[in-house]
Amino acid sequence: xxxxxxxxxxxxxxxxxxxxxxxxxxxxxxxxxxxxxxxxxxxxxxxxxxxxxxxxxxxxxxxxxxxxxxxxxxxxxxxxxxxxxxxxxxxxxxxxxxxxxxxxxxxxxxxxxxxxxxxxxxxxxxxxxxxxxxxxxxxxxxxxxxxxxxxxxxxxxxxxx
Length: 161
Known about the structure:
alpha+beta, two-stranded antiparallel sheet, 8 strands, 4-stranded antiparallel beta sheet
């Protein structure tokens, strides 16, 4: 567990910190249901909860209103319900990128721990005391994104190229 004072110590050091801010484009909408439920099961989430979520997500339908006409509804096969109280938890399970970044030895050291990223929902900040370390972290993010059909928005992404 980190506290604000721990992060202040990182940035008070006399060495540079290189950072990149990544924005996962339409990440909530692109969440693949099958992969999400597999990850919930892998994390030993109660079978009752997984079944309830599965039921909610499998029964979702959408309709696009065209003027005054409502065409036939279609089934939604991806995306998490935005605005719900579970959405950040469910999305955090789906976006396990934090686990991969956390297991990497690149970053700033606080005590005996390496700190190299901050995440909130689909916004990610990776940082390292070296450009090569930052590139390593960006590569991890890129590989994870490719495996999970996540696209980083180049316009909103900020950092050294």
